[in-house]
């Protein structure tokens, strides 16, 4: 998801309109914010995983909390998203 956002950013400019699959029409600034949210969460989950925390502890640390009000109402609840990130992050 992060790589896809990065690719979209490279292909866009300030006038670009982005049609996300599950959100309203967006622009480059919105895509940048999305990428930044994903990167921040990935980094937090990666740090927990590398520190040896099991998934349940990583979830309990609420690495998505600061973003949940705006971003947490999507297809995956925050704990499920953390699980996805945990399982796919080295």
Structural description of this entry:
It is a single chain. By secondary structure, this protein is mainly α. The chain is built from five helices and two strands, in the order H-E-E-H-H-H-H. The protein has helices at 2-11, 28-50, 55-60, 65-71, 78-88; strands at residues 17-18, 26-27. A two-stranded antiparallel sheet has the order 1-2. The longest helix has 23 residues, at 28-50.
Summarize the structure.
The protein has about 90 residues and is mainly α. The chain has 5 helices and 2 strands; from the N terminus they run αββαααα. It is about 65% helix and about 5% strand.
Apparent shape: elongated
Order of H and E elements: HEEHHHH
Q: Report strand order across the widest sheet.
A: 1-2
**Cα Rg:** 14 Å
Helix content: 55-70%
Question: Can you tell me the residue ranges where pLDDT is under 50 for at least 5 consecutive residues?
Answer: none
Label the structural class.
Answer: mainly alpha
What number is the mean pLDDT? 95
Characterize the biggest β-sheet. 2 strands, antiparallel
What is the strand tally? 2
Q: Could you tell me the strand content as a percent range?
A: under 5%
Helical segment count? 5
| First-last Cα distance | 15 Å
């Amino acid at each position: 998801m992060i790589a896809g956002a990065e690719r979209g950013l490279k292909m866009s400019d300030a006038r670009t309109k982005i049609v996300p699959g599950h959100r309203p029409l967006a622009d480059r600034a919105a895509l940048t914010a999305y990428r930044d949210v994903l990167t921040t969460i990935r980094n937090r989950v990666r740090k927990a995983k590398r520190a040896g925390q099991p998934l349940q502890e990583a979830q309990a640390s609420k690495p998505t909390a600061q973003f949940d009000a705006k971003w947490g109402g999507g297809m995956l609840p925050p704990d499920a998203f953390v699980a996805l990130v945990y399982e796919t992050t080295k």
